[in-house]
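TICKET: design request
STATUS: open
ATTACHED STRUCTURE:
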């Protein structure tokens, strides 16, 4: 019996290891490639987490990794960030810094885990954390919360973990001196050229200040919107960008949900839902920003509600009007999606991270076809005449084709993968 038990444990462990390995592969390239992306002379953007406080399977909290020119930054560290980084194979020991757009809990929830496990992974300096005014309070809170944990690990694993490297250094970003102005966050010069990150204020009132970020490597420009309404500073900084990672909300859907909650007497939920509409960017406004600023590619993130199947994708884009003359692409972001901005300014997809999806209209079509054939061919078919059976088959066939066309109308390919308008 003992031998059988050991065999079962061994099989279970092997299966778990395979699942973890396969999940990492689905979410992106092999782990050793991500080391190369950090040292690449080209700018890479990895969507670590594209979720929101509304919990959705397969979407971690907001986080975007910036890789290139020897640098590795995380912009926001929402819940699940460390787990997603690990599954993707990002070398956490090489993390340069964390940059926070603002201090909503869904954007800072994994700061302690990132601090701790980048330390364990071999980080060689105290972790800088850049953010708006108040970042010192956030950092101090996480340092205090993880103080006992650090002591346990230091004592247990001595002398291999250096306690002086465990913590974080808060760096408060200066407030922009004028509307649409930028403040420097980080800059370096190397054999790969000039790399810089600048912060600009966005409108996420009553959260103030809240920042977006403009990242530049030579002529390649990426903008991270953070949480914001459509505002002048966002438009100003998106101009000239090759890739924009933009938050998006299906506002009419959320407004309808709020109205339903109010009609059923749930005033609290109605208030919460109606409040969030006025400080996020609607899907239509995202497209308008891309058109006004001539953005070649925009990746949507922090999507409310998250369009995680084909039907919800259709709803998400259902009231969208594509601006005349707009030639850019708007893609739904996925956790693990990796894009590269080449030196020529072209955006290329490294990993789409798209999960396999089955169009429900196809399933309906197959079910209709099988059942209609069974009815038509059955010798026990005494309910319908042959003519009536033929009419029923044609009707059901027409409905399934109609559904297939509708659900496929908004789906085209962008950069080799991803749903776009």
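STATUS: resolved
RESOLUTION: sequence designed for all positions
ATTACHED SEQUENCE:
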């Amino acid at each position: 019996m003992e031998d059988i038990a050991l065999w079962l444990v061994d099989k279970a462990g092997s299966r778990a290891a395979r699942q973890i390995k396969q999940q990492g592969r689905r979410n992106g390239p092999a782990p050793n490639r991500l080391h190369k992306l950090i040292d690449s002379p080209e700018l890479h953007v990895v969507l670590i987490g594209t979720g929101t406080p509304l919990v959705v399977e397969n979407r971690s909290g907001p986080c975007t990794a910036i890789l290139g020119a020897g640098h590795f930054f995380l912009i926001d560290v929402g819940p699940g960030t460390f787990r997603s980084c690990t599954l993707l194979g990002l070398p956490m020991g090489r993390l340069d810094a964390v940059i926070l757009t603002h201090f909503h809990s869904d954007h800072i929830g994994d700061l302690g885990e990132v601090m701790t496990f980048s330390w364990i992974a071999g980080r060689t300096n105290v972790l800088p954390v850049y953010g708006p005014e108040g970042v010192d309070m956030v950092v101090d809170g996480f340092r205090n919360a993880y103080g006992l944990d650090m002591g346990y690990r230091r004592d247990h694993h001595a002398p291999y973990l250096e306690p002086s490297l465990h913590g974080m250094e808060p760096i408060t970003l200066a407030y922009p001196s004028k509307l649409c102005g930028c403040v420097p966050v980080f800059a370096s010069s190397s054999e790969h050229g000039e790399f810089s990150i600048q912060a600009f204020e966005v409108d996420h009132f009553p959260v103030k200040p809240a920042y977006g970020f403009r990242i530049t490597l030579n002529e390649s420009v990426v903008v991270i919107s953070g949480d914001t309404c459509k505002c002048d500073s966002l438009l100003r900084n998106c101009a000239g960008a090759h890739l924009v990672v933009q938050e998006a909300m299906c506002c009419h859907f959320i407004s309808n949900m709020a109205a339903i909650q109010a009609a059923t007497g749930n005033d609290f939920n109605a208030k919460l839902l109606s409040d969030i509409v006025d400080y996020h960017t609607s899907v239509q406004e995202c497209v308008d920003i891309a058109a006004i600023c001539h953005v070649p590619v925009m990746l949507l993130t922090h999507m409310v509600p998250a369009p995680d199947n084909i039907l919800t994708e259709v709803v998400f884009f259902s009231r969208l009007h594509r601006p005349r003359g707009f030639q850019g692409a708007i893609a739904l972001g996925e956790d693990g999606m990796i894009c590269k901005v080449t030196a020529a300014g072209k955006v290329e997809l490294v990993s789409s991270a798209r999960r396999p999806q089955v169009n429900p209209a196809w399933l309906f079509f197959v079910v209709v076809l099988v059942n209609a054939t069974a009815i038509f061919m059955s010798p026990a078919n005494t309910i319908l005449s042959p003519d009536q059976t033929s009419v029923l088959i044609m009707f059901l066939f027409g409905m399934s084709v109609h559904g297939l066309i509708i659900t496929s109308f908004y789906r085209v390919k962008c950069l080799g993968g991803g749903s776009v308008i």
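CLOSING REMARK: The radius of gyration is 25 Å. The mean pLDDT is 84.
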